[in-house]
Amino acid sequence: MDDARNKIYTSMITVFWILLAFSVLALSNIFILNEFDLFNRYIFFASAVILTLLGIALIVLAAKAKINRISKAFFILTGSSAAGIVIGSVLHNLVYALFIELFGKGFWAGMGDEPVFFIIALVVCPIALLAGIIGCIVLIARNKVVMQ
Fold it and tell me: What is the pLDDT of residue 33?
C-alpha cells in the first residue's frame, strides 16, 4: 500500500516539473520564438496539447495523492490553470464562430470579440498558473508536501 502511495506522489512531482518546462516553452514561444515563423506554429500547437494533457494528469494525480490539503490545492490549481489556458482559448474561438454562424457576420461589429473565455485564457489562468507554480515550488523546496 505504501508503495502505491509513493508511485502516485513521485508521478505527481514528475508531472509537475514537466508541466513547468512546457509552460516555459509555451510562454517563450509566444514572446520569444515568434520571429521563427516556420517552427512557431508546430511548437505552439504541440506545447498547447501537451500542456493541456499534463494539466489534466496533474489534477488527477493530485486528487488521488494522499497529501496535505494545501499541497493538493496548489497542485490542482496548477493543473487546472495550465489546462484552462488552452481550453479557454479554444472555447473563445468556438463561441465566436458559433455566434457568427447563428447571428450573422455583423453581430460582433459593435461589441468587438467574445470577451469571457478570452479574459479567462489570457488573464485569469496565467496568473493562477504562476501562483500555483510558485506555491508548488515553495512547498516542494520546504518539504511541506507531506504524505498522509
Answer: 59
